[in-house]
Amino acid sequence: MGAVFQKMMLLLGSSLFLSTTPCDIFCHGQVLHTMQISNIFNDSKDFVDSPLRFPPNVVLDAFEALPNHTQATLTLFYNRYFEKPGNELQQWSPPDFDPTPPILQKIRNKRMKRWVTALNVLWKELGRSVESDVSANPEKHTLLPVKYPFVVPGGRFREVYYWDTYWIIHGLLICQMAETAKNMISNLLEWVRLYGFVPNGGRIYYLNRSQPPFLALMVSTYVFWNNPPDLTFARESLPLLETEYNYFRSRTVNIRVNGKVYRLNNYQTNQTIPRPESYVEDLETAESVTETNRHQLYRDIAAGAESGWDFSSRWFSDYRSLNHSITSNIIPVCLNSVLFRVETEISRMFQSIGNEEKAAEYSALAKQREDAINAVLFDHQRHKWSDFDHQLSQFRRNVTFASDFLPLWAHVKPPHGVTVADVVEAFEDSGLNQIGGVSTSTANTSQQWDSPNAWAPLQQMLIEGLNDNGHTSLARSIAKNWLQSNLVWWEHSGTMAEKYSAFEVGHAGGGGEYVPQTGFGWTNGVALMLINSFETQSNSGSGHGVWWVFVIVGICVAFAVILAVNWRRLRKWLSAARRNSRVLTKPLLRTNESVAIQQ
């Protein structure tokens, strides 16, 4: 953390010997504690997103001089020394926005076309640029400066978020907004150059943790989206992608199975106090925990946030309560699946620029990880992968999670003696697949990354995994259910939700430590990805794919067979028809006219 702090201070243009920094107000200390427990704010994030009107030392001196800490006094203090949250950001319209992107021309369904038009417009509504004061006076802001404007998730998530950006970029590329996509990736690469990793989000209080490492996948997506591939961007990005990869590899857990040691990775942080953006919530969670155990609890809560699954029964020893978090004890299927994809994509990019040695190195790392995933995380009793508690040396079997099947998306091959069909059967038997999408888990808790909620990134990853492994019909069915639920909600509310109910079509999800948000970056990106993959192939009014082609072909084949078998009888009938043409002609013409209208 010392190196990260030093780099942060350099970025802020401050001396390492500066007595006060924004973190003294917003990351830790008495001001943070007092303001957050004052009940002034409906959301803990609002305080830490509030720019300072004066330098931090002036604000600290003013706080020390307060006569008391009543709510009225603290409200006056806040209004005098802080601006409203989000004031350092302004609406931004991407210059490469196209009101009629090519995807619209591929959609015949008018209802679907209206929706996609609206999804495209949301890129402008979610576009943000950073006020110049953030770079001129960084000591007054928690926002991390970036070179290029960006697209945000939406709602309280008013800044860049790491793994959200992967699906946002896919949506931008589908809408032909390649410049915006590339610039957003470049912002993240610059953070790697500064900090050695991509923070959870674009605030100084996120500099103690990351999120699932999708940056290499973003770079690869952009590089190979171009025709020909943008190998210059690949060549420039690869050293930084290796830096980030090594950041995650440094947190390794060694597991011995049948005498062989395997290396896998997990989520870890050094956070020993409540998260600034969820300060009150973390204090309340820790109330029932002894003082001795609170530091570890805060580490595990922050590690759960780093996973992106904040929060889920995945991370709880009792599968029920956040104050039983043991995230750092768990080797997660999702992280190691993502890292496998990272290794394969880095290898692919090295191969594309002609660096055979590096390509072979990362290919070998991917093979080692695939072996480790199957040796440590594959549950042969249930024909699926499962999270593994390395402290107890056992699978986390009480609940089934959508993440158990993400190795299919990563293109991890099941272990010897197990087929993809076996794993897919386990998925179909799990109860996760519902009418509104795939439920996050089979545990119905108050946590948002559990049942009954369904999340866009998990739908996309599972659909891609099933489709790539030859289970196209199931993939299409899930995509259809998910898009239908998104569309019904949009037609009802005019918004896109952060999460949905897997059990009710057209219902937003709930639970968690904040009110449900709308916007919503990754939901929009995933919807566009699935529409582009499945709905643009349709020429029918229903917009449900290409099934009608097979129906028509089948009818034609059947008709040809019947015609061949009954040719002689048909010739006799035609002769009789000609003899009675006066009687038959008019009805036949009327019938033909009716068919033409229906077509």
Care to describe what's here?
It is a single chain. Helix content is about 50%, strand content about 5%. It starts with a helix and ends with a helix. It is mainly alpha-helical and about 600 residues long. Strands 1-2-3 form a three-stranded antiparallel sheet. It contains 24 helices and 14 strands.
How are the secondary structure elements laid out?
Elements: H1 2-11, H2 23-26, H3 30-36, H4 44-48, H5 56-64, H6 71-81, E1 89-91, H7 110-125, E2 127-130, H8 133-136, E3 150-151, H9 164-174, H10 178-195, H11 215-225, H12 231-249, E4 252-257, E5 260-265, H13 279-286, H14 291-306, E6 330-331, H15 333-352, H16 356-377, E7 378-379, E8 384-385, E9 388-389, E10 394-395, H17 406-410, H18 420-429, E11 433-434, E12 437-438, E13 453-455, H19 456-468, H20 472-493, E14 499-501, H21 521-535, H22 547-565, H23 567-579, H24 581-598
Antiparallel strand pairs: 1-2, 2-3, 4-5, 6-9, 7-8, 9-10, 11-12, 13-14
